[in-house]
């Protein structure tokens, strides 16, 4: 008996014709043996971490008096248990990118555009260097100008003792 032509099975001459179903070649795992240790696993960075880095980098710039608007600073003075490090900083963090919003108070007499440019440079450099996240934007809102004769003790006093 002869077999019909369409039903004749032949083993392929090389592996290039094998499909994934009939292949017995094991591929190395995506994270494991054969991969560099730095790529084994996932690193996640919390938004609070990026906020702190951005806040500290912004405060390093000469001409920045404070972060946060008047209301945020007032509430921070009334509620002393709350951390003021990230006041005036908001971030959105994705897997590879982040966007940062800063609210600042500048010293009287400085060039606001120069201070803003320096803040962007410093914040982007610090965040990208420390987290390897791409900073897609740094938005800066100048909410106040600190005058030389204003004292820091002008925050409203609490009526409670």
Summarize this structure briefly:
This protein has helices at residues 47-59, 70-78, 112-131, and strands at residues 64-67, 89-93, 97-107, 134-146.
Characteristic terms for this protein:
3 helices; elongated; single chain; 4 strands; Alpha-Beta Plaits; 161 residues; alpha+beta; four-stranded mixed sheet
Shape: elongated
Q: Helicity level, as a percent range?
A: 25-40%
What is the end-to-end distance? Answer: 106 Å
Query: Mean pLDDT, as a whole number?
Result: 79
Give unreliable regions as ranges.
Answer: 14-24
Major β-sheet annotation: 4 strands, mixed
The assigned CATH architecture of the domain at 47-152 is 2-Layer Sandwich
Proportion in β-strands: 15-25%
Question: What's the SSE pattern?
Answer: HEHEEHE
Number of helices: 3
Radius of gyration: 29 Å
Structural class: alpha+beta
**CATH homologous superfamily of the domain at 47-152, by name?**
Cation efflux protein, cytoplasmic domain
CATH class bucket of the domain at 47-152: Alpha Beta
Number of strands: 4
User: How is the CATH topology of the domain at 47-152 named?
Assistant: Alpha-Beta Plaits
